[in-house]
Backbone:
């Protein structure tokens, strides 16, 4: 079992930055692909970004490309999402997730999920 806990969310003005963290316990994350997803009220869960176990392959959703950066520190069992130039439309609950196989851009393939952290961007 892998337990994931997100942190770093909060309220920020448009144009600001936040750094989300996802800390894992139970098992080492070094063999897992990690993803970030988000869900706004009344909307479907949306892929934000993913990173392979080695950190060598990353993907980003079209709406966050060039603004968000995913990274990981396997020694600390933690994954990060640096979010810059935030927009009101980035407001959502952000979730991290872990999996070993499958297309990392698809939520359905993830085995483990955190509880989420709220990000609110004011205009």
Residues:
């Amino acid at each position: 079992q892998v337990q994931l806990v997100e942190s770093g969310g909060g309220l920020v003005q448009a144009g600001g930055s936040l750094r989300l963290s996802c800390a894992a316990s139970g098992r080492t994350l070094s063999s897992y692909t990690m993803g970030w997803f988000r869900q706004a009220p009344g909307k479907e869960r949306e892929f934000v970004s993913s990173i392979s176990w080695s950190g060598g392959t990353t993907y980003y959703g079209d709406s966050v490309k060039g603004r968000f950066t995913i990274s990981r520190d396997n020694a600390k069992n933690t994954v990060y999402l640096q979010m810059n130039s935030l927009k009101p439309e980035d407001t959502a609950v952000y979730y991290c997730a872990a999996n070993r196989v499958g297309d990392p851009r698809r939520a359905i393939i993830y085995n483990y999920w955190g509880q989420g952290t709220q990000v609110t961007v004011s205009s």
About this structure: The chain has a mean pLDDT of 95. The chain has no helices and eleven strands. The first strand starts at residue 3 and ends at 7.
